[in-house]
Amino acid sequence: MKLRFHNRIVIPLLFSFGIICFGCENDLKEVEQLTQKEKLPLKKGKNVQLIYSEKAVVKIKVSAPKMEEYASENPYLEMSEGIEVIFFDSLKQVNTILTANYAIHRIKENIMEAKNDVVVVNEKGEKLNTEHLVWKQDSAKIYSDEFVKITTQDEILMGEGFEANEDFTKWKINKIKGTILLKENKDSTAVSP
Length: 193
Hints:
With about 190 residues, the protein is of the alpha+beta class. It has one helix and eleven strands, in the order H-E-E-E-E-E-E-E-E-E-E-E.
């Protein structure tokens, strides 16, 4: 009698538990599918050009061979095949060019990160090389905390981290690690044998 009563309770409990487990498995699959959809780009584009202007004057032109827009809590644009950003002055002349092999623009924060072989060249011919650069568009600043090399007409400066305005006309290296002079100073006196 005890065994029969025990089976009447245990068997329905096991059956109910099985139904709950299978029900949860389906819900987990649905959750995974929804999560996967967030990982898919909302929009895709090839050979994309974005033009930013103020008062009908072009200020910045962004070009990317591939651009994907992702919608999530923190939406972003990804340029996984490289980027070129051209800054123009008030006379519509090219002021600065930034290139990188990868870039991501965090839309809510209005920050772009450029990575992998980042090069910035300004109108004076000064050239920045680094592997990571952050462009804070709201404050019109660019910076890096990583190794940087800046080449001017007279010297090559190397260091850790730098800050500059977005068109790279005013800059400073945070921790200079070395300097290589490219031209001999005209004021120096050389002693010849």
